[in-house]
């Protein structure tokens, strides 16, 4: 992934269902210090003081998925006897990266390709290993990336249930499988998606996809979701862990050529603040967390209104990590 739609859009507030409520929750946190993990949360998520007594401070950006993953990280650390406090709903990468550098945060859920694009907008992203190596090389020397999970939250070409049924396409189908059908389909997405390499340009050059037409909507948000649901468009740019996929039985087509780059969930860590046991605990989480699982967990939080801390604890137990 180069300077694509995923890296250029803000990850601080997503167009997922529940983003507005998360934004309100962020304001509430700033005013009251409350959160889903309130028992171990500092009074102010923007407080710059470092944790004392060996406490690991787990931070999150102010969107629902980041909060959920932070709770997973924190509870996994607690299960190994690590003392944890939370600083949730902080804001965008521009804020959280600075707090990591000064040690105010010890651990933060990151997305490797998006982080690299932030650190070096011109960096090429050809493989998971090269992305992580390039990001590590650009990081502040006090910080490090731990092992990336298979779970990714990135752009995709997603089709609605009607289209999937018509052409016998499943979640195992690839973008190449759409080649013969694309001339019959309208593709929806942000206006920029029409002219980007990691958009319609690349879909044609890499996979040979030539769509009937393109409908300019929004970046994976409610306009795109509604158009796909109503069959105004039959395919659309939807982010891979958007709970709408579950709710509407959309089908995400696989991208074996990695046209849409890399967005693997990866712990970003203030090195001196985390023990070897803590590193092992977070790497164990990464080993078990894949995109399908993350989508299911996001759906519980954003569609079923479950507390992310409860969802985190339940998944860790089911994965044998509690």
Automatic annotation (TrEMBL):
CDD domains: PBP2_ProX_like
Pfam families referenced in this protein's UniProt entry, alphabetically: OpuAC
MF term (GO), any: transmembrane transporter activity
InterPro entries: ABC_Gly_betaine_transp_sub-bd
Domain spans labelled ABC-type glycine betaine transport system substrate-binding: 55-317
GO cellular component assignments: ATP-binding cassette (ABC) transporter complex
Official protein name in the record: Glycine/betaine ABC transporter substrate-binding protein
Organism for this UniProt entry: Streptomyces phaeofaciens
């Amino acid at each position: 992934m180069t300077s694509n739609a995923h890296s250029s859009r803000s990850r601080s507030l997503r167009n997922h269902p529940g983003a507005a409520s998360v934004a309100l929750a962020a304001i509430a946190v700033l005013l009251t210090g409350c959160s889903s993990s309130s028992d171990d949360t500092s009074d102010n998520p923007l407080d710059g003081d470092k944790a004392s007594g060996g406490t690991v401070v787990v931070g999150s950006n102010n969107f629902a998925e980041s909060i959920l993953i932070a709770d997973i990280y924190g509870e996994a650390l607690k299960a190994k006897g690590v003392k944890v406090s939370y600083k949730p709903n902080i804001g965008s990468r521009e804020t959280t990266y600075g707090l990591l550098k000064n040690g105010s945060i010890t651990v933060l859920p990151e997305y490797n390709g998006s982080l690299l694009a932030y650190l070096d907008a011109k960096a090429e992203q050809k493989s998971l290993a090269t992305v992580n190596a390039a990001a590590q090389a650009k990081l502040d020397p006090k910080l490090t990336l731990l092992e990336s999970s298979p779970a990714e939250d990135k752009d995709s070409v997603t089709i609605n249930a009607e289209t999937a049924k018509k052409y016998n396409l499943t979640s195992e189908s690839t973008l190449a499988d759409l080649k013969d059908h694309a001339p019959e389909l309208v593709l929806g997405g942000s206006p920029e998606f029409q002219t980007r390499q990691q958009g319609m340009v690349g879909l044609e050059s890499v996979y040979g996809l030539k769509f009937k037409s393109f409908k300019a909507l929004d970046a994976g948000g409610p306009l795109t979701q509604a158009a796909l649901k109503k069959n105004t468009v039959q395919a659309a740019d939807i982010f891979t862990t958007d709970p709408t996929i579950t709710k509407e039985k959309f089908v995400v087509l696989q991208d074996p050529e990695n046209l849409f780059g890399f967005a693997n969930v990866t712990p970003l860590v203030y090195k001196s603040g985390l023990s070897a046991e803590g590193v092992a605990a977070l790497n164990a989480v990464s080993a078990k967390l894949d995109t399908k699982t993350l989508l299911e967990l996001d759906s519980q939080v954003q569609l079923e209104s479950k507390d992310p801390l409860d969802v985190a604890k339940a998944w860790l137990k089911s994965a044998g990590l509690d």
